[in-house]
Amino acid sequence: MLDTLSYLIKSDFPAIKRDALQTLQVNMGYLCNQQCLHCHVDASPRRKEIMQSDVVEIVKEFLMQHKIQILDLTGGAPEMNPHFRNLVSFARQNNIHVIDRCNLTILEEEGYEWLAGFLAENHVEIVASLPCYLEDNVEAQRGKGVFDPSIKGLQKLNSLGYGSDDRLKLKLVYNPQGAALSPSQENLEVAYKKELAERYGVVFDQLYTITNMPIKRFGSMLLSNNEFEPYMDLLKSSHKDSNLDTVMCKTLLSVDWQGNVYDCDFNQMLGLPIPVKQRHLKDLMSHDFDGNDITIMDHCYGCTAGNGSSCGGALTE
After folding, report:
1. For the CA atoms of the chain, what is the radius of gyration?
2. Is residue 310 part of a domain?
């Protein structure tokens, strides 16, 4: 796989600083039951890196020390970590809102029959990747045989109240098929809701559009196809200063499977730690992050191009 880091280092992206910390995004490991083309984590069934119990305990302590409002669990497939249920249960018992970034197909995997019911019982918000409502488009990006279990997973969640019960939020994620920006999130959501309801009886709360980042597997594909520079030109020419105020790294910290801390999930994948002396969660229990500098490089333009992009979808319309 081709590495894009050296192409991103020399950057003129504007300097930004942190606001008050609200969200801890925890990568439970790179193990996944899928291997998607757009995956910036390079997750796959072959990966062995998963968060161990000692690091999970440090995460719990950090949640309480910093009075974290939102625990955002990602991977890989975070549910494949054997400590997933323990961490979710702890957070919910302490009134911390939990987000599970679910690939949907995990709900249909053997051995995970418990998962949907567990998520519903704990009122876990689900943010699920579904790059299109058409089978061919989904499988071109996420692999053969992925679409049908994704739809079955959505139908299972609907049967439990997801998408109709205000306590059970279900949000879908759209990624562009290639080196392009997302269309209007609002307009695309209307199309998704219409097509999924008519074709499969599926309902959901909201659609997020997220820009493909020029790193890891997607970045390697860009380099291989000689599309890296044109894509970076697109991101930079579409930059909007107005998006800087609401980029996710201002209120979020990203933690890798070993407990190391980063400004965002993308910086984690590039190995760009936060610009402070101590960089492990256990050493930051009393650290005040408000006003700290944020580590930036050229990939940051992916979050400020067009309508903006974050783990919560578009920043503006």
Report:
1. 19
2. no
Summarised one tens digit per residue, pLDDT across range 42-78 is 556 677 789 999 999 999 999 999 999 999 999 889 9
Are the C-beta atoms of 211 and 173 separated by less than 8 Å?
A: no
Residue 146: inside a domain: yes
CATH number at residue 86: 3.20.20.70
pTM, entire model? 0.94
DSSP per-residue codes, 243-272? GGGG-GGGTEEEE-TTSBEESSHHHHHHT-
Sheet of 170-174, strands arranged across: 206-209, 170-174, 125-129, 97-102, 70-74, 23-27, 252-255, 261-262
Is residue 237 packed enough to be buried (19+ CB in 10 Å), middle (13-18) or exposed (0-12)?
exposed
What is the extent of the structural domain holding 105? 5-304
Contact by Cβ (8 Å): 297, 69: no
For residues 104 and 190, what is the distance between their CA atoms, to the nearest angstrom? 21
Number of domains, the chain: 1
